[in-house]
């Protein structure tokens, strides 16, 4: 019974500490599964005779599925979940916060990772149906594969990305708004600084990958080509993927750097040298990381100007990283270093990170990159960095283990595991780099020539050493959890508080964690969304029809999506509404005993502001992709535009005027509320929602059928593909805005929001203005033809 109570406690918890433990547990599961994929690859390569197995010749699809799943799982599942888990465990304690800013959303974010993980690994079950997409999901592999497993992976990416974006916003609000007032920003924990920088990247870098995944799904099932020829351009996917992919590396590296910064200074017995420089360099790395993605594409981009520009920015990102390394070494100089296992892991992080950085400086040199691209040298470089991240995570797990569990790990076993991981990892990745310099290509299921086979065989041997070290580390953790020596002072087991660096900063307020099952229910119900969408697509998509799944078709799809929405309505009705009724006479949030610190902008407005920012990134990705297609596919776009039916007409003008007018009625509603006139507020709110409904209904039930009647249908041309994708996405946001207004009306009626507390109404108004502003961009782009007016990319006759 005790076990069942414990399980129920974790299933219904909103406590960041327990959620952090669940994140780390899930990340370890994904680490083991991804490791099995890597092990299968190494054994396959070692067992394959050299000289024959090019990707086109090798018949074993499972090898390429293992390669695809290993890379994606290590980045998007294991590493991301481990970072978020450590953030949940440590950030509130290091900044004196009572919890994360949104406890319920924090729990929801975790439970969304569960269906994302299930969908992701379920893709492996369909490896015989079609080719693997590769871990970068490059078109045309991802667009032409007939395996439904590709779609399960894409939906897993979308759900996981949504979860991580919410987590990023949650961390930003926690650090900026729940940090103890007596902790100045520049004196804040270096790990909290790194999580703040990584969270900014989550909000800005993850939405483009979700957008690209949706575009892949539309292309695979509805023929709306964006990436595959002859209509689309496969380089566009590379741009989208690496615009996400390179910041994603820093989403993982920055928290690892924060952990190193925290633990090195504690184990050296002195405050970090250049504390402020280390903190600010995290933000600098995050900022520059968005300007380096194209160095992954030097072989695909032929123009010299972007090559030179991105070579410079790639070199520039090494500067703030170098600042950190210099300050870490300066911190060690003169310190009283304790060479315990956590410190050994952190020092080895420095070794692997420096070697990884040195091997990385070759890639901005375009002439060298052209030779090294798609060789094992790239794999060696990347795995130096990834293993460095793992060293930081393992070292932090050991350092905080006595604080989290009240028991000590076994020091001798920890040092042996460190030695095995260090030797196994360094030897494996050095052999990879050496084989790459000698010309061994990536992704091959074996050595292409006999002289390279010894390198690959040795890599496999040292992979066994690496695996043994990791297995021993995990065994040590599990064994010590039950049998470890008790800690005398759990609050300060390492005795570091005396140097001014406490591991726990007590919050000024206490927090309640009442059991709440709805994040668990609604988060896991997310698995119904891909099931419902793919069921709806069965009548249109040969891939879905031939998969042998989703036999219920459209009725089952509608049922699945309806059940999912019903869970959302139930959460609203049976949990949130009751909570609002309790809180309507309070100024603070229900999970805190006293009100939160006063706000300059307002709680909900700040939250919605970050949501709007992430939504803007989504639209910016799609709009910029449309303009990219216009320039790169100029002749195809021009030919399609010549047969374009008139978009600008009485209906589109009336719809646009109605939507833009609703911004003024929304302002009038807010002003009426502030003046205390609820009657006028409801009147203006009804006008706002009426105008929004007119826009949405006109678009979906009048404009679309008319355009399709003239042959302008999704999939008919590159112009139609972008038009319907962007305009439909905007229409979906109009519906979200209408739901937001409906919730606002309910909450005003319940007395939660009113003249004295108008933040919800103001937040809904700002979101509505955002929706109206996006329509200005779309109306100008398509209806006024701004995108069609772009001149040819090259002068005539050039």
TrEMBL record:
Matching PROSITE patterns: COX1, COX1_CUB, COX3
**Main EC class of this protein?**
oxidoreductase
Membrane-spanning intervals of the chain: 21-43, 63-87, 108-128, 148-169, 190-218, 240-260, 272-296, 308-332, 344-366, 378-401, 413-438, 458-482, 518-537, 549-574, 608-628, 648-669, 681-702, 722-746, 766-790
Q: Name one GO cellular component term.
A: membrane
Q: Where in the cell is it found?
A: Membrane
Domain Cytochrome oxidase subunit I profile per the UniProt entry, residue ranges: 3-522
Membrane topology listed for this record = Multi-pass membrane protein
The record, for SUPFAM superfamilies, names: Cytochrome c oxidase subunit I-like (SSF81442), Cytochrome c oxidase subunit III-like (SSF81452)
Pfam families hit by this protein: COX1, COX3
Gene3D superfamilies for the chain? Cytochrome c oxidase, subunit III, four-helix bundle, Cytochrome c oxidase-like, subunit I domain
A biological process from GO? respiratory electron transport chain
Q: What is its main location?
A: membrane
Q: Where does the Heme-copper oxidase subunit III family profile domain start and stop, copy by copy?
A: 514-787
Instruction: Tell me which InterPro entries the record gives.
Output: Cyt_c_oxase-like_su1_dom (IPR023616), Cyt_c_oxase-like_su1_sf (IPR036927), Cyt_C_Oxase_1 (IPR000883), Cyt_c_Oxase_su1_BS (IPR023615), Cyt_c_oxidase-like_su3 (IPR000298), Cyt_c_oxidase_su3-like_sf (IPR035973), Cyt_c_oxidase_su3_a-hlx (IPR013833)
**Which keywords fit this entry according to its UniProt record?**
Electron transport, Heme, Iron, Membrane, Metal-binding, Oxidoreductase, Respiratory chain, Transmembrane, Transmembrane helix, Transport
Enzyme Commission number(s) from the entry: 1.9.3.1
Can you tell which superkingdom this protein's organism belongs to? Archaea
Supply the name of the protein. Answer: Cytochrome-c oxidase
Q: What is the lineage of its organism?
A: Archaea, Thermoproteota, Thermoprotei, Thermoproteales, Thermoproteaceae
């Amino acid at each position: 019974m005790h076990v069942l109570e414990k399980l129920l406690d974790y299933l219904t918890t909103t406590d960041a500490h327990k959620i952090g433990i669940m994140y780390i547990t899930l990340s370890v599961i994904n680490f083991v599964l991804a490791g099995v994929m890597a092990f299968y690859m190494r054994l396959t390569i070692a067992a394959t005779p050299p000289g024959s197995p090019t990707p086109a010749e090798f018949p074993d699809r499972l090898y390429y599925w293992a390669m695809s799943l290993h890379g994606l799982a290590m980045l998007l599942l294991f590493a991301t979940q481990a970072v978020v888990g450590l953030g949940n465990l440590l950030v509130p304690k290091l900044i004196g916060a009572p919890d994360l800013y949104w406890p319920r959303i924090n729990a929801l974010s975790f439970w969304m990772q569960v269906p994302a993980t299930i969908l992701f690994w379920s893709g492996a079950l369909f490896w015989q149906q079609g080719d693997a997409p590769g871990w970068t999901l490059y078109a045309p592999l991802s667009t032409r594969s007939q395996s439904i497993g590709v779609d399960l992976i894409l939906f897993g990416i979308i759900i996981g990305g949504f979860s991580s974006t919410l987590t990023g916003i949650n961390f930003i609000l926690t650090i900026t708004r729940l940090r103890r007032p007596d902790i100045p920003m520049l004196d804040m924990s270096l790990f909290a600084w790194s999580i703040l920088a990584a969270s900014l990247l989550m909000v800005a870098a993850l939405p483009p990958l979700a957008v690209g995944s949706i575009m892949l799904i539309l292309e695979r099932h509805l023929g709306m080509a964006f990436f595959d020829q002859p209509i689309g351009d496969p380089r566009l996917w590379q741009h989208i993927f690496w615009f996400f992919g390179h910041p994603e590396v820093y989403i993982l590296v920055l928290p690892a750097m924060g952990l190193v910064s925290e633990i090195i200074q504690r184990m050296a017995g002195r405050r970090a040298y250049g504390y402020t420089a280390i903190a600010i360099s995290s933000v600098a790395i995050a900022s520059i990381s968005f300007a380096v993605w194209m160095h992954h594409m030097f072989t695909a981009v032929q123009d010299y100007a972007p090559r030179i520009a991105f070579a410079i920015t790639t070199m520039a990102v090494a500067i703030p990283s170098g600042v950190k390394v210099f300050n870490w070494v300066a911190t060690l100089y003169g310190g009283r270093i304790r060479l315990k296992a956590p410190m050994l892991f952190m020092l080895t992080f420095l070794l692997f990170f420096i070697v990884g950085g040195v091997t990385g400086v070759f890639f901005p040199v375009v002439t060298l990159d052209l030779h090294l691209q798609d060789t094992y040298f790239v794999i060696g470089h990347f795995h130096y960095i990834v293993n460095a991240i793992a060293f930081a995570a393992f070292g932090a797990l050991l350092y905080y283990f006595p604080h989290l569990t009240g028991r000590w790990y076994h020091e001798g076993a920890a040092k042996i595991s460190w030695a095995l991981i260090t030797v196994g990892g360094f030897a494996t990745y050095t052999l990879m780099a050496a084989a790459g310099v000698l010309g061994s290509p990536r992704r091959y299921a074996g050595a292409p020539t006999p002289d390279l086979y010894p390198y690959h065989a040795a890599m496999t041997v040292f992979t066994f050493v690496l695996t043994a070290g990791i297995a021993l580390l995990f065994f040590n953790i599990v064994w010590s959890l039950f049998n470890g020596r008790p800690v005398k002072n759990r609050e300060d087991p390492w005795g570091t508080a005396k140097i001014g660096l406490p591991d726990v900063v007590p919050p000024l307020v206490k927090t309640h964690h009442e059991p709440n099952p709805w994040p668990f229910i609604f988060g896991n119900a997310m698995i119904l969304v891909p099931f419902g969408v793919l069921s709806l697509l069965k009548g249109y998509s040969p891939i879905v029809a031939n998969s042998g799944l989703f036999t219920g078709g459209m009725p089952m799809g509608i049922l699945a999506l309806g059940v999912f929405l019903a869970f959302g309505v139930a959460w609203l009705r049976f949990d949130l509404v009751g909570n609002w009724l309790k809180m309507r006479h309070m100024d603070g949030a229900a999970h805190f005993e006293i009100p939160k610190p006063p706000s300059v902008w307002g709680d909900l407005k700040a939250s919605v502001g970050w949501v709007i920012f992430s939504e803007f990134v989504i639209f910016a990705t799609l709009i910029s992709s449309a303009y990219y297609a216009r320039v790169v596919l100029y002749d195809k776009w021009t030919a399609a535009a010549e047969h374009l039916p008139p978009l600008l007409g009485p209906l589109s003008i009336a719809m646009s005027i109605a939507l833009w007018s609703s911004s003024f009625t929304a302002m009038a509603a807010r002003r009426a509320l502030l003046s205390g006139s609820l009657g006028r507020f409801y009147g203006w709110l009804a006008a706002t929602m009426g105008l929004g409904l007119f826009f949405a209904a006109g678009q979906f039930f009048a404009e679309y059928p008319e355009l399709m009647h003239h042959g302008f249908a999704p999939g008919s041309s590159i112009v139609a593909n972008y038009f319907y994708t962007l305009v439909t996405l905007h229409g979906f946001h109009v519906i979200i805005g209408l739901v937001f207004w409906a919730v606002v009306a309910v909450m005003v009626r319940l007395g939660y929001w009113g003249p004295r507390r108008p933040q919800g109404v103001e937040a809904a108004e700002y979101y509505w203005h955002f929706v109206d502003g996006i329509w200005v961009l779309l109306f100008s782009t398509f209806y006024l033809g701004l995108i069609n007016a772009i001149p040819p990319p090259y002068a005539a006759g050039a």
